[in-house]
Task: inverse folding
């Protein structure tokens, strides 16, 4: 039997990961795995456990939301030879699981660990010291993900983000930034920006580009310039919902690295968690760095 370490976040999502723990363990045991369970005790526990114990097992599995997955991968990035990764999503949105075709049902996700296929994914590096899996963002609405109480996320799911997002409309802040990418640079005032490697953010597919590849060494970048009137803001939001190909305030492009410089500290969010306040942020794509068991889906 192969050795498997299951890291469980007991407070993530509408139904805590521990609720289906016995069923998940039974499925994995019957699939030929010798399972050891670690229940996280605090923030960053998943990261520290993955870094300390990941080298001892053949398969490292995390159960929780996208934040738990992000922590686990960040810990694995410290290892010279990280093990194969499995994911049992138990969060409020589970964006990255959807991108990989991993079932949202715990039992089905556990079964997928037996029948699914390994797939190498890109990992983001932020300011040379932190990693993210699917999104790094700043500006309008980004604080919603880490400021929304966990209890409200568990109760309302997507609606929690929408409710808190509407509240933040009145407090939109503009940042004057210089942005440098692979092929160009620009200097503008922006209210929002995100660097992604996913098919959806916050459960919404319209925010990201079509035909996203999770292993191409490129990020999808979205930047929104500061509107000068309420009507312009409305037009921006409308173009995002209807997926218009062109809007003069919305910039989309692909890049393997990004440098963003601002005259004041800017709060960044990494995979739904606070990533720090930075005047200068450098983001790099680390291509095909982690191997994860994907679901039954055609991945670009």
Result:
């Amino acid at each position: 039997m192969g050795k498997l370490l299951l890291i469980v976040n007991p407070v993530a999502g509408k139904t805590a990961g521990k609720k289906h723990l016995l069923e998940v363990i039974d499925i994995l045991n019957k699939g030929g795995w010798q399972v050891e369970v670690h229940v996280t005790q605090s923030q960053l526990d998943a990261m520290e456990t993955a870094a300390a114990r990941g080298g001892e097992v053949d398969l490292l599995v995390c159960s929780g939301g996208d934040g738990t997955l992000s922590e686990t991968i960040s810990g694995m990035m410290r290892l010279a030879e990280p093990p194969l990764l499995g994911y049992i999503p138990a969060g409020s949105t589970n964006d990255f699981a959807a991108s990989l075709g991993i079932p949202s049902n715990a039992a089905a996700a556990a079964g997928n660990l037996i029948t699914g296929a390994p797939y190498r994914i890109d990992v983001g590096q932020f300011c040379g010291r932190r990693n993210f899996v699917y999104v790094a963002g700043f500006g309008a609405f980004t604080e919603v993900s880490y400021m929304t109480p966990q209890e409200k996320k568990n109760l309302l799911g997507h609606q929690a983000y929408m409710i808190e997002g509407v509240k933040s409309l009145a407090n939109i802040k503009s940042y004057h930034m210089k942005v440098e990418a692979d092929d160009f640079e620009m200097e503008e005032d922006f209210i929002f920006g995100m660097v992604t490697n996913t098919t959806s953010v916050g459960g919404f597919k319209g925010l990201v580009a079509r035909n996203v590849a999770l292993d191409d060494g490129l990020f999808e970048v979205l930047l929104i310039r500061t509107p000068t009137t309420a009507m312009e803001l409305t037009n921006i939001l409308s173009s995002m919902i209807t997926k218009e190909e062109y809007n003069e305030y919305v910039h989309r492009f692909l890049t393997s690295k990004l440098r963003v410089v601002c005259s004041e500290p800017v709060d960044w969010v990494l995979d739904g968690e606070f990533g720090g306040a930075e005047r200068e942020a450098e983001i790099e794509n680390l291509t095909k760095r982690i191997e994860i068991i994907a679901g039954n889906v055609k991945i670009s």
